[in-house]
Amino acid sequence: MAALGLDLHVALKSVRGAQGEIHPVLRDIHLTVGLGEMVALIGPSGCGKTSLLRIAAGLDADFTGSRIWHGASAPRLGMVFQEPRLLAWRSVRQNILLAQPAPDPALADQLLARLDLAARAEAWPGTLSLGMARRVAIARALAVRPDLLLLDEAFASLDPDNVARIEALLAETWRDRPIATLLVTHDRAQAIRLADRVIDLAALSALSPADR
Amino acid sequence: MATRLLVAAALLLIWQAAAMLAQSRLLPSLLAVLQAMWAETRSGALLLNLAITMARVLVAFTISLSLGCAIGIAMGRWRGLDLALDTLVTMLLNLPALVLIVLIYVWFGLTETAAIAAVTLNKLPSTIITLREGARTLDPNLAEMAQSFAMPRLRALRHVVLPQLAPYILTAARSGLALIWKIVLVVELLGRSNGIGFQIQIYFQLFDVTLILAYTLAFLIVVQLIEWAALQPLERWAMQWRR
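Output (structure tokens, whole complex):
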């Protein structure tokens, strides 16, 4: 039996252009993210990182290949999109509670406090700065106690203090329970600092820890 | 608020002054109309007919709004359904209210159900078109967010979809109320034996402008109260997150 986690094989993913022409975006990608493992995807923008993440999330089934989750049941997904994607008409706290399978206010408040958002729990998302909104999106993804955590440029527009805060929270979350994490970033230093494996999608080469 | 009251008072004053100048049976003064309103209220006729008409308005409003929302959202989301129903909706939208009312009365008889159906069908197409427009503007990013967190259908509808449609639903409700009460009066005039529309027909035959205006004024007051007491608070509540 394969190791627990996500097993992704993309033979071909293409998108249709404005004139109906077909562009291949991803070809022959084999990616595994084990439970308890953190994999970072790096590469220049436009190389298909987000496309691969959407396939990993199960949001895009329009590709040839396979997406298999090895585990007891379907994974619970914690997703942080490139944009915060909060519900502007629900409070910060409500945004988190609504994403949870069953509302868990204690966990929601704990995560908000850890991300320095406790004072803004009842605020409308529209009143937050982009950096705060991003932190809410991260709190939301962690609040579902995910098995599979997907982070798409989740650290963009955050100041170093908050990046450190989130990195510490992630490290703690990984210690508590095994999560398969896939992080998309263009920050190579951060990828190397956080991840067990760094995959450069442009070069299509996996760098082993020994190569760092 | 002060400006609104001022404008209303000015209009009423102009009316009173014009009536006093004209001294005609065909333009009764504000005071005469208020006296007639009071007399009709004391006899019970005004309140009874107002209640009957309002009941018809509310039933037709509720049916056409809920049905129109459901069909409109479905047409906005599914292209196939949109193509299938588009012609029908456009035809219904452009069919004169009078034609629809007369045909429904002829085919189904001068019954309460026929009256309500005629009003509902008159309002339905514009609600459908408003909500179809709304459904087309739904943010696919938020739908994807709801999908990725495996939000249950009802929760996603209530917290993700409906708040995005709220401005469209409120627009449909407001214009719907205005259209519906106009059509209810025509339906009453043509085929019912009570309600404001029926009363107005009687007073038209008697050329009694005072009573026509008394009933109209009573109705306008009720509609304005609905706007202030229901629609505007609802709008503020639904839009409170905007600044």
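The CA atoms of residues 107 and 180 of chain A lie 20 Å apart.
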